[in-house]
Design goal:
homodimer; alpha/beta; Alpha/beta knot; two-stranded antiparallel sheet
Amino acid sequence: MLRPYSNMGNLYLGLLHYPVRNRKGEIVTSALTGLDVPDIARSCRTFGICKYYIITPLPSQQQVAQRIYDYWDKEERDHAHRREALQVIKVVATLEASLADVLAIEGIRPLLVGTSAQKRTAPQFTYEQLREKLELENTPAYLLFGTGWGLAEEVLERLDVMLPPIYGPGPYNHLSVRSAVAVILDRLRGH
Amino acid sequence: MLRPYSNMGNLYLGLLHYPVRNRKGEIVTSALTGLDVPDIARSCRTFGICKYYIITPLPSQQQVAQRIYDYWDKEERDHAHRREALQVIKVVATLEASLADVLAIEGIRPLLVGTSAQKRTAPQFTYEQLREKLELENTPAYLLFGTGWGLAEEVLERLDVMLPPIYGPGPYNHLSVRSAVAVILDRLRGH
């Protein structure tokens, strides 16, 4: 089933800091976590993601993202592989802006794919179904990851597809978003 | 092929800070990365790992690990799931000490399994082979992750089995150790 990468639908990834839920279910803007910048960039580069959008409406948080980017780009000159991964990053204010960027690159609207650690109401797809669709069809897909306590309802309502939560052998499934990104990209694009 | 968890071989994980290689191939003790403590603990708890050994011979680094543990245990009281994951952690000075701990728990020596982002000389197993072995046999296994530029030769020589590097569609495979742990545990125990 494996096809040359150039024939597969391109994958994009967004890390959403607004609108997300806090532990009480309220809609908030979450703060950026420093290691989300290089860790998720390295996972994106490894699994062939075209762009990694860091989405936050707060200019101060956008500056934090830029400072972390600059640190890895300028101070870590000996880590060529880490610097290379940073090229995948784009900091944007809104989900809308990132979708417009994907549309500008691809010429068509991508399949909008949600992820969650909980079962939430949205059209379901298994990992195998999405992997096969991406390998057989030349359709771009955009994977959306929520920070805090997960994607807000208004985002869920816009999804074309929702991937199921990741589990191990038991009921506990509280991965960091960095770990969840790595696992999900491996399930969709790993070898 | 899925069996009840209680019939599977137990899994242990070690994060080695010595002996590992630096970028020049020299043997060094690497510094602890703060997020390796909670991130890898959450992956271990999700994928049913019995113990997560943080291995460093330096007392000052062991104290750093303890302080990070204490922070997550005491300051993050509202994050019950994160605190729960910490119970899997044990800070030890040497690989030998962690192996003795596994032996004390299991009564038999575990299968010592190495991981690497590069192809290195050691007996090879695919992920499918190891997953099946762990599901069919009641043998414990101990997964070893190197920090810095990877496990030293003297560690490779002791391995029973080496897992292959993780790849996406291209040749770049520079995941953070946190991401590599999540992907490998998912390949061995994910659902």
